[in-house]
Structures are given as structure tokens and as C-alpha cells.
Design goal:
By secondary structure, the protein is an all-alpha fold. It has one domain (about 5-75): 434 Repressor (Amino-terminal Domain). About 75% of the residues lie in helices and about 0% in strands. The chain has helices at about 5-20, 20-30, 35-40, 50-75. Helix 1 (about 5-20) packs across helix 3. The longest helix is centred in the last third of the chain and has 29 residues, at about 50-75. It is elongated, with a radius of gyration of 16 Å. The N and C termini lie far apart (about 55 Å). About 10% of the residues are buried. The model has no long low-confidence stretch (mean pLDDT about 85).
């Protein structure tokens, strides 16, 4: 078994954290399917800034959703 690159591990981790399959991830982030496939297979590496931007965007969206869920739970109990 080949050792996975940091890019392979990171891009798959980011995608899986969204709960999306590869096709959905590509459509949402407007990245060609073949590009993400090559990143995950290790035949190409994503630029470091792309990984950082994706991570930032995914984390901020998750935090917004968490906050919205929290606030909607508070208003239901009033």
C-alpha cells in the first residue's frame, strides 16, 4: 500500500467533514471533478492556499449552521 500524501489526506478529510460525496463537493465549491479526484488519488497536489481556504470556508459554514441551530432551539422554547 502506498503512503498517502498530506494533500490526499487533507482533501478527503475536508470533503468527508461536509458529508458530501465527491460530485456534490465539486459542484458546491466549483472545482472540476477530475481535479478533486486527482488530489484524492495523489496524482496531483492541491496548492496549500486552496486547502486553507476550503478549510476556512467549511469551518465558518459549520459554525454558522451550529449557531443558527442553537438560536432556533432557543426561540422554540420561548
Amino acid at each position: 500500500m502506498e503512503k498517502q500524501t498530506e494533500c490526499q489526506i487533507e482533501i478527503r478529510k475536508l470533503r468527508e467533514s461536509t458529508g458530501m460525496n465527491r460530485k456534490e463537493f465539486c459542484e458546491i465549491f466549483e472545482i472540476p471533478y477530475r481535479t478533486v479526484t486527482e488530489w484524492e488519488r495523489g496524482t496531483r497536489n492541491a496548492p496549500e492556499y486552496v486547502l486553507r481556504l476550503l478549510e476556512y470556508y467549511i469551518q465558518s459554514k459549520y459554525m454558522v449552521k451550529e449557531r443558527e441551530d442553537y438560536l432556533s432551539g432557543q426561540t422554540e422554547s420561548i
